[in-house]
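Researcher: Next entry in the queue.
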Amino acid sequence: MYTRILAVLGAAALALMAAPLSAHHGWGGQSGEQSQLTGTVTTGVSLAGPHATMQIEDADGQVWDITLAPSSRTSRAGLTEDVIPVGAEVTVTGNRNSDMARYEMKTVRVTYDGTNYDVYPRRIS
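Model: Structure for this entry, 125 residues:
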């Protein structure tokens, strides 16, 4: 009986751990090379959802979706929803989506007003 209870609890624990993994956004759909993009913030940092996000408009008027680290990691890097105002100029460093028709970058660093917010510090090259 004790063994059966442990087995059920173990299976439940594994199921609960699998849920966050299914929501994780990997790096497989991104270009292998890092690049930088400078633009104006059109939608500020949002910590809602599995990954923090923001949008910036480049010099050509193209709006880019910026995917940051998971919200908790982005916050620990010092980048919270109130740090960068809409209209501010930022530079993001990261990996562009492999599909060049999508204007999306998975970002490892956001630079604003001379401060670097390293949301994936081990990935900065």
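Model: The helical segments are 2-23, 71-76.
Researcher: Noted, moving on.
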